[in-house]
Design brief:
The structure is a single chain. By secondary structure, the chain is of the alpha/beta class. It is 33% helix and 14% strand. The chain folds into 2 domains: 143 residues, 3-Layer(aba) Sandwich (D-Maltodextrin-Binding Protein, domain 2); 110 residues, Periplasmic binding protein-like II (D-Maltodextrin-Binding Protein, domain 2). Helix 2 runs parallel beside helix 3 and helix 3 crosses helix 11. The radius of gyration is 20 Å and the shape is globular.
Length: 314
């Protein structure tokens, strides 16, 4: 089974024996057929409408504004009540999904796997057109003098380094996997200085920390970095890309099985079609994607296997 690719090159074979006894500290991390919104909902058993949330991989104020268009779009298309609710951090988004507080979540690869494994019947239903082949950037402050390379930048060993959130796929999980694959040891053993994490914000915080020189090197989502450079939030000269990882599957929209109880059998399929057929660019800004395509749970098995190896799945 090909789990990840560098261009057309499978790297599934490199998983065998690449971890060995390696262990990384474990980090645990309402939609219906159009009609009467409460027809199938038991009184007091769940919020009175579809509740959306997302992992906070950017400033929450920006996120809330971007998801407004999605909220209004789904209300119109499905004729139900829809709301967006901010989650404080990655693990909170997973816990709220497990508890049935939220019903549609924009997860990363890792958080999506964690949520679906904890909730039988949960389904990944959509992903961005770029998400089956996602990647991470390693970036460095200009003062390091590092330039972009096809090979892993061993010179970062003695530099200060930061991941994003501990539960981020592109900002922690897969960069960790690739560091182990390239060096044979965990990041904690590879770097001579303590590995850092961004506790407020995620990919945007990593980009700003490196661009400002507060940290010399960081790993983050390529989409967030590209959008921040395009919007003038950071300068590519201040924080150039020094290495790009091979591809892996990442972000996805996951639906809670309670939606079928709340709105009737077949509702999740209906929701999936509405999302995948959406061409409204304002709506798609919620995901920083040009298009949504269907997704299935088994497309993220590679992420699950890596997370298990790294001790990030219970």
């Amino acid at each position: 089974m090909k789990l990840f690719k560098a261009g057309g090159r499978s790297i599934s074979q490199t998983m065998k024996g690449c971890f060995g006894s390696v262990a990384v500290a474990a980090t645990a991390l309402t939609l219906s057929s159009c009609g009467d919104k409460n027809q199938n909902a038991e009184e007091g058993s769940a919020p009175s409408g579809l509740v959306i949330t997302a992992i906070p991989d950017e400033k929450v104020s920006d996120q809330e504004a971007k998801f407004k268009a999605l909220q209004e779009f789904l209300e119109k298309e499905l004729e139900i009540e829809v709301s967006f609710s901010i989650s404080d951090d990655y693990s909170a988004a997973v816990e709220r999904f497990k508890n049935g507080e939220v019903h549609l979540v924009w997860f990363g690869g890792l958080t999506g796997v964690q949520a679906r494994k904890a909730v039988p019947g949960a389904r990944a239903i959509a992903q961005g057109d770029v998400d089956p082949q996602y990647k991470s950037y390693f970036i460095a402050h200009k003062s390091t003098g590092l330039k972009k390379s096809e090979s892993f930048p061993e010179a970062i060993k003695d530099m200060t380094f930061t991941f994003g959130s501990k539960s981020s796929t592109s900002g922690r999980l897969m960069p960790t996997y690739f560091i182990i694959n390239e060096t044979g040891v965990t990041p904690e053993k590879f770097f001579t200085q303590p590995v850092q994490f961004q506790t407020v914000g995620s990919h945007d915080a990593t980009a700003r920390a490196v661009a400002s020189g507060a940290v010399q090197v960081g790993a983050l989502s390529y989409k967030k970095y590209d959008s921040m450079v395009a919007d003038g939030e950071i300068s590519a000269e201040d924080a150039p890309i020094i290495w790009t990882t091979p591809y892996y599957a990442d972000y996805n929209l996951t639906a809670h099985p309670d939606l079928e109880k709340l709105y009737g059998e077949g509702f999740i399929d209906k929701l999936q079609k509405v999302l995948v057929d959406c061409t409204d660019k304002e709506v798609l800004k919620a995901f920083n994607r040009d298009d949504l395509i269907p997704a299935k749970n088994d497309e993220f098995e590679g992420i699950y296997k890596v997370a298990k190896e790294l001790g990030l799945m219970r």
